[in-house]
Amino acid sequence: MRYSVFNLLRQAAQAHKGWPRQWRDPEPKPAYDVVIVGAGGHGLATAYYLAREHGVRNVAVIEKGWLGGGNTGRNTTIIRSNYLWEESEAIYEHAVKLWETLSDELNYNVMYSPRGVMMLAHTVHDIQVFKRHVHANRLAGIDNEWLTPAEAKAFCPPLNITSSVRYPVLGAALQRRGGVARHDAVAWGYARAADGLGVDIIQNCEVTGIRRGAGGAVEAVETTRGLIRAGKVGVVAAGHTSVVAAMAGFRMPLESYPLQALVSEPVKPVFPCVVMSNGMHAYVSQSDKGELVIGAGTDQYVSYSQTGGLHITTHTLDAICELFPMFRRMRMLRNWGGIVDVTPDRSPIIGMTPVPGLYVNCGWGTGGFKATPGSGHIFAATIARGEPHPIAAPFTLDRFRTGRLIDEAAAAAVAH
Ligand code: FAD
Ligand code: PYC
User: Fold this and answer.
1) Which residue's alpha carbon is nearest to atom 31 within ligand 1?
2) Structural domains in the chain?
3) Is the whole-model pTM more than 0.90?
4) Is the CB of 294 under 6 A from ligand 2?
5) For residue 283, which atom of ligand 1 is closest to its CA?
6) Which helix (H) or strand (E) holds 257?
7) Has residue 13 got a pLDDT over 50?
8) What confidence tens digit (pLDDT) does each residue in 284-338 have?
9) From start to end of 54-206, where are the E strands?
10) Are 105 and 52 spatial neighbours (Cβ–Cβ below 8 Å)?
11) Cα 83 to ligand 2 centroid, rounded to whole Å
12) Nearest C-alpha to atom 5 of ligand 1 is from which residue?
């Protein structure tokens, strides 16, 4: 543009929107109807359901690293719906039902294996809490049953139920429909299916800013690869949602903690189910490759480190060896951490934000893998319709203002 008086006037008028509409440059059209920030399972599932169920195919998923390289590819893959409150039962059970047919839906084997999730009770408090969950779940039509120590051992023969250990097993809650899936396959399956419907997946592209236009509505994301215009933006950046929200000018009630997991050398099939001990901060299953997949508790301090304190894994291995003495001589192959974002009530936040056109799906803490299909499904509906899906409705950001919290601290698998 030349620096004529006319052009200077025109620029000034454009800036103040005072120039007659017909003389203004046309507003640039969004490059994408929807931009999703974060190519984890939740972000990819959201893009897939936007395209598949709502016909919104002009979608980009922007990922700062590689797809599935966040918590989706770092978790211990436990799937269950044995939560306490009706709102949570609805969301996690919605996900479990979608897991049951997901491989067919995506034409990709996500290796969903409902082999049973057993939660051990070591104290009277554990017994009371788990029995309360069993009753609440059964009232909601969700399977969950109470087992004596002998029944728990019959279900999982390697379990040590002697009374000579520090924290004897006093009983267990078993959800038979719970299980595991292969985490990378979930990311790849959704990515391939979304890509097939026309979704663009842009890796190595970090969102560094959120640009807002008329009325404060979101109009673009700034990235390390340039500006990308968007009609709507959905932020699904587990562990980093507060960082992205700050770019748009608001705060989130979230704290980010490292959570760790590790795998052993592979051995023949010896472990038939998933066992969790919330009290001892340990959970274990065996992958189809034969590795024991073991998870620990969160670090005690907030951090963005994707490693975590070694003392936490040592403590977890102590617990595993006590519960399953036959694993004492196994070698551990590798360990890693992910960053989980935790809300004050340990339930997720799904829906609108104070910025028009900007949506968030976050706060799944230590337990969002199991929710992946359900979360993507209801978040896509929320974005497409511009109002919360009925299952998402209780999980608004607003609940931290109104006080209508959904306290799932006791259902969380690990210590926070
Ligand atoms: P992610 O997979 O983390 O995806 C978010 C993506 O956003 C990342 O790829 C990240 O790189 C990207 N991103 C962030 N910032 C930006 C930016 N500025 N620009 C672009 N991209 C960005 N849950 C269970 O249900 N069962 C379990 O057994 C279980 N075990 C766990 C064990 C561990 C060790 C960990 C760490 C978590 C575990 N979880 C478990 C929790 C579960 O992994 C997460 O809740 C879930 O995977 C979150 O999925 P997501 O797609 O939201 O996040
Ligand atoms: O939510 O089931 C769970 C879980 C297991 C390990 C971490 N989270």
Assistant:
1) 75
2) 32-106+183-253+344-402 (3.50.50.60), 117-178+256-342 (3.30.9.10)
3) yes
4) no
5) 28
6) strand 255-264
7) yes
8) 999 999 999 999 889 988 999 888 888 888 999 999 999 999 999 999 999 999 9
9) 59-62, 78-79, 117-121, 145-147, 171-175, 179-180, 200-202
10) no
11) 12
12) 237
